[in-house]
């Protein structure tokens, strides 16, 4: 590996894409292409399902990514790591959630489904914020016949505590006021990044990570050159080594220029 080249990991929502509109700033798109032209390795690290950012990957020409919060890792189009849930554990969690009238959505590598009516207001509200075409279908016994990479639990803030106590082998990470990611205990973007870095030879000082939300915490803590967006949560800003401008204020481009990865006149 050429020593002056770096690897950069970018979260999507609130980092590559703006918070409300979920649009890609022109300065960010240009910066990503400039990084690639200079020979840097550009990767996406997201909590999104694989099928929920196909368009963005195509638009940016990125074929290296960590998705489902570290459960699924692809290097230049090749899957190098894929971790799935045990169906029995998910069935137990589903039954508990149904008892509490909390919908659950499960995702494989192609779609997401729920075994409750999919017009539940919590599902509609939280999925709508992603600004994607995909939407959960209603399908019984999906977890019994598919490899599940991630789940979504729908409830309000504070209601996750009973799940954390009852299911210690799971992590519940809130990404919306009505929804949480469901992951195996200890799984994170950082774990997925470690799997990828086993294939590569970038020194620590040539590793960069950009994020804004709770599911970025482990990644921000692990990567030496960690960047919190100006719109990031306070705890992410505190954990990062650098805080840039808001995503909508050319925050990605600004930070890359400050690091010297791109020229000031980009």
UniProtKB/TrEMBL annotation:
Claim: Flavoprotein is one of the keywords in the record: no
Any GO MF annotation of the entry: hydrolase activity
Keywords: Hydrolase
One Pfam match: Hydrolase_3
InterPro entries: Cof, HAD-like_sf, HAD-SF_hydro_IIB, HAD_sf
Full protein name: Cof-type HAD-IIB family hydrolase
Organism encoding this protein: Oceanobacillus locisalsi
Lineage per the UniProt record: Bacteria, Bacillati, Bacillota, Bacilli, Bacillales
């Amino acid at each position: 590996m050429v020593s002056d080249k770096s690897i950069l990991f970018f979260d999507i929502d609130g980092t590559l894409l703006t918070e409300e509109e979920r649009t890609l700033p022109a300065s960010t798109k240009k910066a990503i292409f400039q990084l690639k032209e200079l020979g840097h390795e550009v990767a996406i690290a997201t909590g999104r399902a694989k099928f929920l950012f196909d368009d963005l990957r195509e638009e940016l020409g990125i074929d290296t990514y960590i998705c489902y919060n570290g459960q699924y890792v692809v290097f230049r189009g090749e899957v190098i790591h894929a971790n799935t849930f045990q169906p029995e554990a998910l069935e137990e969690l589903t039954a508990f959630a149904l008892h509490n009238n909390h919908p659950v959505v499960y995702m494989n590598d192609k779609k997401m489904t729920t075994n409750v009516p999919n017009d539940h207001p919590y599902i509609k509200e939280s999925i709508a914020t992603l600004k994607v075409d995909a939407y959960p279908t209603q399908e019984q016994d999906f977890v019994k016949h598919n490899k599940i990479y991630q789940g979504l639990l729908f409830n309000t803030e504070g209601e996750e505590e009973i799940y954390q106590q009852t299911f210690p082998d799971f992590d519940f990470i809130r990404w919306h006021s009505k929804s949480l990611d469901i992951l195996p205990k200890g799984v994170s973007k950082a774990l997925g990044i470690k799997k990828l870095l086993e294939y590569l030879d970038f020194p620590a000082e040539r590793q960069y990570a950009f994020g804004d939300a709770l599911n970025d915490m482990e990644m921000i803590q692990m990567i030496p050159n960690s960047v919190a967006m100006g719109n990031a949560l306070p705890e992410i800003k505190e954990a990062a080594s650098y805080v840039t401008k808001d995503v909508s204020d050319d925050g990605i481009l600004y930070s890359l220029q400050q690091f010297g990865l791109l020229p000031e006149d980009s």
